[in-house]
Amino acid sequence: MSIAPSATGKLTDTEIKHLCSKTNNLRSCYKLLKSDHRTKNVDARGLVEISVDLASKNAKKTYSLINSFVNTTHDSRLKNIYKSCSSNYNDIIRDLKVIKNCLKSGAFKNIHVQVKDAFEEIKQCKKVFGGATSDGAHINKKNQEFEFLISIVEVISDNLNKN
Protein backbone atom coordinates (compact mmCIF):
# COMPACT_ATOMS: atom_id res chain seq x y z
CA MET A 1 0.00 0.00 0.00
CA SER A 2 1.34 3.38 -0.99
CA ILE A 3 0.69 6.37 1.22
CA ALA A 4 -1.07 9.02 -0.81
CA PRO A 5 -0.79 12.44 0.75
CA SER A 6 -3.91 13.74 2.45
CA ALA A 7 -5.71 16.76 1.02
CA THR A 8 -3.38 19.02 2.98
CA GLY A 9 -0.28 17.05 1.92
CA LYS A 10 0.40 16.41 5.59
CA LEU A 11 0.91 12.83 6.72
CA THR A 12 -1.43 11.59 9.43
CA ASP A 13 -0.34 9.63 12.48
CA THR A 14 -1.99 6.56 10.96
CA GLU A 15 0.09 6.95 7.78
CA ILE A 16 3.30 7.37 9.78
CA LYS A 17 2.45 4.27 11.84
CA HIS A 18 1.77 2.35 8.62
CA LEU A 19 5.20 3.30 7.28
CA CYS A 20 6.83 2.39 10.59
CA SER A 21 5.08 -0.99 10.52
CA LYS A 22 7.41 -1.85 7.62
CA THR A 23 10.46 -1.55 9.90
CA ASN A 24 11.46 -4.18 12.45
CA ASN A 25 10.14 -2.04 15.33
CA LEU A 26 7.00 -0.02 14.69
CA ARG A 27 6.88 1.46 18.20
CA SER A 28 10.50 2.68 18.21
CA CYS A 29 10.22 4.04 14.67
CA TYR A 30 7.02 5.95 15.42
CA LYS A 31 8.32 7.29 18.74
CA LEU A 32 11.58 8.41 17.13
CA LEU A 33 9.88 10.19 14.23
CA LYS A 34 7.28 11.82 16.46
CA SER A 35 10.03 13.08 18.80
CA ASP A 36 11.00 15.56 16.08
CA HIS A 37 8.77 18.65 16.25
CA ARG A 38 8.75 18.90 12.44
CA THR A 39 6.69 15.71 12.19
CA LYS A 40 3.51 17.59 13.19
CA ASN A 41 3.12 19.22 9.77
CA VAL A 42 5.12 17.04 7.45
CA ASP A 43 4.51 15.56 4.03
CA ALA A 44 6.14 12.37 2.72
CA ARG A 45 9.22 14.20 1.44
CA GLY A 46 9.62 16.01 4.76
CA LEU A 47 9.39 12.74 6.66
CA VAL A 48 12.27 11.35 4.60
CA GLU A 49 14.25 14.49 5.40
CA ILE A 50 13.57 14.06 9.12
CA SER A 51 14.62 10.41 9.01
CA VAL A 52 17.82 11.33 7.13
CA ASP A 53 18.56 14.05 9.69
CA LEU A 54 18.14 11.56 12.54
CA ALA A 55 20.38 9.02 10.78
CA SER A 56 22.99 11.72 10.01
CA LYS A 57 23.10 12.89 13.61
CA ASN A 58 23.60 9.31 14.77
CA ALA A 59 26.27 8.59 12.15
CA LYS A 60 28.22 11.75 13.00
CA LYS A 61 28.18 10.92 16.72
CA THR A 62 29.35 7.37 16.05
CA TYR A 63 32.04 8.60 13.66
CA SER A 64 33.37 10.95 16.38
CA LEU A 65 33.26 8.19 18.98
CA ILE A 66 35.16 5.78 16.76
CA ASN A 67 37.76 8.43 15.96
CA SER A 68 38.25 9.06 19.67
CA PHE A 69 39.02 5.35 20.06
CA VAL A 70 41.45 5.50 17.13
CA ASN A 71 43.29 8.28 18.95
CA THR A 72 43.33 6.66 22.40
CA THR A 73 43.96 2.96 21.82
CA HIS A 74 47.50 1.63 21.92
CA ASP A 75 46.57 -1.76 20.48
CA SER A 76 47.59 -1.59 16.81
CA ARG A 77 45.17 -4.35 15.76
CA LEU A 78 42.26 -2.56 17.40
CA LYS A 79 43.41 0.79 16.03
CA ASN A 80 43.22 -0.64 12.49
CA ILE A 81 39.72 -1.98 13.15
CA TYR A 82 38.61 1.43 14.42
CA LYS A 83 40.18 3.13 11.40
CA SER A 84 38.32 0.79 9.07
CA CYS A 85 35.00 1.54 10.77
CA SER A 86 35.77 5.24 10.81
CA SER A 87 36.17 5.09 7.05
CA ASN A 88 32.84 3.26 6.79
CA TYR A 89 31.08 5.95 8.81
CA ASN A 90 32.75 8.68 6.77
CA ASP A 91 31.24 7.07 3.67
CA ILE A 92 27.86 6.74 5.39
CA ILE A 93 27.86 10.47 6.19
CA ARG A 94 28.61 11.16 2.54
CA ASP A 95 25.79 8.81 1.44
CA LEU A 96 23.35 10.67 3.68
CA LYS A 97 24.42 14.02 2.21
CA VAL A 98 23.76 12.64 -1.27
CA ILE A 99 20.30 11.51 -0.12
CA LYS A 100 19.56 15.06 1.07
CA ASN A 101 20.62 16.38 -2.34
CA CYS A 102 18.38 13.82 -4.07
CA LEU A 103 15.48 15.02 -1.95
CA LYS A 104 16.14 18.63 -2.89
CA SER A 105 16.41 17.86 -6.59
CA GLY A 106 13.47 15.43 -6.68
CA ALA A 107 15.69 12.52 -7.77
CA PHE A 108 13.89 10.12 -5.43
CA LYS A 109 14.81 6.98 -7.35
CA ASN A 110 18.51 7.66 -6.64
CA ILE A 111 17.97 7.56 -2.87
CA HIS A 112 17.73 3.77 -2.91
CA VAL A 113 21.31 3.42 -4.16
CA GLN A 114 22.67 5.56 -1.34
CA VAL A 115 20.63 3.69 1.27
CA LYS A 116 22.02 0.39 -0.01
CA ASP A 117 25.55 1.85 0.12
CA ALA A 118 25.00 2.87 3.76
CA PHE A 119 23.78 -0.64 4.59
CA GLU A 120 26.91 -2.07 2.94
CA GLU A 121 29.17 0.25 4.94
CA ILE A 122 27.53 -0.88 8.20
CA LYS A 123 27.89 -4.49 7.13
CA GLN A 124 31.63 -3.92 6.60
CA CYS A 125 32.06 -2.24 9.99
CA LYS A 126 30.20 -5.09 11.69
CA LYS A 127 32.37 -7.60 9.84
CA VAL A 128 35.68 -6.13 11.05
CA PHE A 129 34.40 -6.10 14.62
CA GLY A 130 33.12 -9.67 14.34
CA GLY A 131 35.93 -11.18 16.38
CA ALA A 132 36.79 -8.15 18.48
CA THR A 133 34.87 -9.43 21.54
CA SER A 134 34.27 -6.83 24.25
CA ASP A 135 36.32 -4.20 22.45
CA GLY A 136 33.70 -3.97 19.75
CA ALA A 137 30.53 -4.36 21.83
CA HIS A 138 29.93 -0.63 22.10
CA ILE A 139 30.51 -0.13 18.36
CA ASN A 140 28.29 -3.09 17.47
CA LYS A 141 25.49 -1.47 19.49
CA LYS A 142 26.03 1.80 17.60
CA ASN A 143 25.99 -0.13 14.31
CA GLN A 144 22.65 -1.70 15.24
CA GLU A 145 21.21 1.71 16.13
CA PHE A 146 22.32 3.15 12.80
CA GLU A 147 21.08 0.11 10.90
CA PHE A 148 17.61 0.70 12.38
CA LEU A 149 17.74 4.40 11.44
CA ILE A 150 18.78 3.71 7.86
CA SER A 151 16.00 1.11 7.61
CA ILE A 152 13.55 3.89 8.48
CA VAL A 153 15.05 6.05 5.72
CA GLU A 154 14.69 3.12 3.33
CA VAL A 155 11.03 2.43 4.15
CA ILE A 156 9.97 6.06 4.01
CA SER A 157 11.96 6.93 0.88
CA ASP A 158 10.64 3.84 -0.93
CA ASN A 159 7.20 5.33 -0.40
CA LEU A 160 8.25 8.45 -2.36
CA ASN A 161 8.97 6.31 -5.39
CA LYS A 162 5.42 4.96 -5.34
CA ASN A 163 3.67 8.33 -5.49
Write the layout of secondary structure elements.
Layout: H1 13-20, H2 26-34, H3 44-72, H4 76-105, H5 111-128, H6 137-162
Helix pairs in contact: 1-2, 3-4, 3-6, 4-5, 5-6
Uncertain ranges: 1-7
Net shape = elongated
Percentage of residues in DSSP E strands: under 5%
* Content-based structural category: mainly alpha
What is the β-strand count? 0
- The quaternary structure here is single chain
Biggest β-sheet description: none
The number of helical runs is 6
Helix content: over 70%
Radius of gyration: 17 Å
Q: Overall pLDDT, averaged?
A: 90
Order of helices and strands: HHHHHH
What gap, in angstroms, lies between the N and C termini? 11 Å
Commentary on this structure:
The chain has 163 residues and is an all-alpha fold. 74% of the residues lie in helices and 0% in strands. The protein is built from six helices and no strands. It has helices at 13-20, 26-34, 44-72, 76-105, 111-128, 137-162. Helix 1 (13-20) packs across helix 2 (26-34) and helix 3 (44-72) packs antiparallel against helix 6.
